[in-house]
Amino acid sequence: MSHATDYSELLYPYGFVLTAGEHAPPTDHFGQRALPGGCWYSFHRASPGAIVVDQDSFLILHGHAVDVRSPEGHPVLAQRLALLHRESQHDFLEALDYIAGRWVIIVGDSERTKIFHDAHGLRSVYYHTEDNVVSSHAHLVSSEAMRGDVEPVTDKKLGLLWDGTPYNKVRALLPNHTIDLRHREPERYWPRRENQYLEIPPEERVTAVDRSWHVQMDEYAARYGRFAVSLSAGSDSRVVLAMARKHISNAHFFTYTTSSPSDNYRDRTIALDSAVVTEFCSDLHIPFSKIDAAGARAIDPVLRGVVRRNALGAHGYWLLPHYRALFSSSSSIHIRGNCLETGRSAYLAQGWGRTADDILKMSLRRIRSANKGEEADRREVDSVSAGLERFGYRESLFGYNPVDLFYMETKMGRWYAELLNESDVAFDTLTPFNTRAMIEAALAWPESERIDGLLFQELIDRNFPVLNFYGRNGGPSLYQRVRLLLDG
User: Which residues contact 20 (CB under 8 A, 6 or more apart)?
Assistant: First the structure.
């Protein structure tokens, strides 16, 4: 007799729950701690981190993290952050700007319990608007195990705008914002000043990002010993490969292919990835694997049900069986470069404009598309406008472009964070371009140079210069571009 596979350990992996008052752990795979001030914290046992308790206060570091200025283990980092928080709020927030990884930091005492997360919000955080519940997963906040099932939103387009979710009383914490467990009103804490890298020479900006990236690679190589690295025809994975050069022997590179391509966009993109990656990996003698989109493995229905509870939306279910066949979640960490798009001003590059009003137009255009061509109604317009005010996009933002922050906070902090929640059943993820200090260094470049990705080309030139020769996304190689110029 066959028995169904038990996937219970993959429910809410790397997740947490924090409540004011006692709660039952979500599954048997969660541990639990009672904390000063009446808080209770549950954590998935696969999650790294540390807890510091000092009489009537505490600090939780949940998830993987490294200070790029002073790499140290989680317990030492947590102790240092707890001391900074007691002595100086300014110094504590400054320290957060240099902590890479995928984490949430919770600091609490008898009066307040505040929640902070990594620069792009890749450790997603959700909270109940009327009860003292904060968690890593929207479905977990809404579950019966916490406070009873939460009603679904009546208008899904409005529900997913800004910090919305499919549940009326569950909200996402956007990157660069903090909330208090008991008061739950988002408060922006970054940016707090003008960009500190504006007056620093470009060469030093490159050095700052280069050093921060390598600190992470060395630290995570020591912790995990094995990297999974996805490669594509685009520029972001090229940067990841360049920065992983000294760790190639400890990396498992892979790309996507299809044995039966069609003319749809996905298959054309996959075929391009396969061709370009095969070219430069063959030239450079870099071994890699291919995941065949045409040979899609069936995902176990039970596992599919687990993933549906882990993530909002479906992003790539067909990949999950391949990932699980290739990698072990406990021994590998997946390195991805998606957040480089923030440093390349992705929305500006797409011509979306530069002001809060442009964000309004962009959002309403998306609503019109979701409405199948019908214009947004007054309620939808008001919802977008309210978000602009609520999250401070109409304020000065210390000279930062609001469209850049909008991409960072609502694209990376919502869509990409949920993509990682989905892939957590296969492995945890490290996105090295995920400290506010590194983002500052990137956004200090002039707009045209950000869009061209000059910073990241410089990183490649320093670490694996031949990779700048190959064309990106099927474009001409460096030699071909020179020939085009010479031929006029």
Answer: 37, 38, 39, 113, 132, 181, 182
Take residue 414 and report the two structure tokens written for it. Answer: 């919502």
Q: Residue type at 317? A: Y
| Cβ-contact 135, 25 below 8 angstroms | no
Tokens, residue 164: 């919305």
Say if residues 25 and 32 touch (Cβ distance below 8 Å): yes
The rounded distance, in Å, linking the Cα atoms of 383 and 2 is 51
Q: How many CA atoms lie within 13 A of 462 on its CB side?
A: 20
* Bridge pairing between strands 227-230 and 251-257: parallel
Q: Does pLDDT of 1 surpass 50? A: no
- How confident is the model over 228-273, as pLDDT tens digits? 999 988 889 999 999 999 999 999 999 988 877 677 777 788 888 8
In the block, residue with structure tokens 């001003």: 345
Quote the pTM value. 0.94
Q: How confident is the model at residue 336 (pLDDT cuts 50, 70, 90)?
A: very high
Please answer whether residues 253 and 286 qualify as being in contact, where contact means their C-beta atoms are separated by less than 8 angstroms.
Answer: yes
* Chain mean position to CA 171: 17
Could you tell me how many residues make up the chain? Answer: 488
